[in-house]
Amino acid sequence: MIRSFTLASILAVSLTAGTAQARVAGERVERPAPDRVIVSWTAAGPVDVYAADRPDAPRERMKLVSDNDADGRHELAADLISRPYFLLVDSTDGQATRVAERVLPLAQGSNFRDLGGYRTEDGRSVRWGRIYRSGATPTLTDEDLRRVKDLSLSEMIDLRSSEERVLAPSRIEGVPYVSVGYSMGAISRNGNPVIPDMETIYRGFPELLAPQVRVLFASLLRNEGPVVYNCSAGQDRTGFASALILRALGVPVETVMADYHLSTTYRRPQYEMPKLTPELIASNPGAAIYAQYQKDPKYLTPQPLKDSVGVSYLSFALDEVDQKWGSVAAYLQAEAGVGPKELARLKELYLE
User: Fold this and answer.
1) What CATH superfamily is the domain 103-350?
2) Are 317 and 207 in contact (CB under 8 A)?
3) 19-101 — its CATH code?
4) For 178-214, what is each residue's pLDDT tens digit?
5) What strands, in cross-sheet order, belong to the sheet with 63-69?
6) pLDDT digits over 23-57, tens only?
7) Residue 272 in contact with residue 110, Cβ under 8 Å?
8) Stated pTM of the model
């Protein structure tokens, strides 16, 4: 059965909704200016707000920036490079909730965001600052590169085709880089580089991306440091990979779908692919496809990731997994060697 989620149902699901007992909820961090951040939340009572520049800092090593805060909002100065992390402590019962910016504030990046903070079916949360997803990074500024360097990434896993990696090489250097070669024609499932309908593309992801899934989950299990994975837009292939990770960690499918649709908000297509020259278009089979995208007036405006009747494209990939493998867990066992022992290890590493 295809999972159909309307916009209303997605919006009804809080991306950070906690358990029924949770007092702090709806927590988020936004950046109204490069050097300012706003932390906001809802709670039944006052909250103490702590800040640090590390996602795993214990409370005793964090700075108290606002105590007994009852208005659900605190604004403060932020370092232009270092990423701030916050701990919201309920003054009544001491419950602590971590939160950080969902998207990295890059001047010329697209859809570079953190998978942290999502709550699982058993009430735990995905750790912040450990798993990042992104679009392509060929146009990052020098300041953007300093922001990325501050993340201390241990590995970058590129899900793009061989043609795309030639057209838009990443500017990120000094990070171990892994890719698995394949042609853009493989995305269409018929060897033709002309892109077919989105259902066909998404239903092909489980088989097409199986080698990349093995690489990605092996990297996560090695636990050598924060990991980032990307495709061109950071929404389709990256969306499928993110769904596998979040479901493996026990995040509800409704939250997975809501995270997927954030790409419509956080994509910046003008920074995903450099302007293509006639020489590149003539020499690279994938260039013609992207050249057509760049001519389309809608190119700079991310489009909703749904078909004409409102079904999320990601639903097609997840439905394919269920039909052919039975479940995400069975798929990961068969295609990536990630069984019950490995799933338990992933939860130990990436949940708190």
Assistant:
1) Protein tyrosine phosphatase superfamily (3.90.190.10)
2) no
3) 2.60.40.10
4) 999 999 888 876 555 455 689 999 999 999 999 999 9
5) 63-69, 47-52, 85-90, 96-100
6) 799 999 999 999 999 999 999 999 999 999 999 99
7) yes
8) 0.90
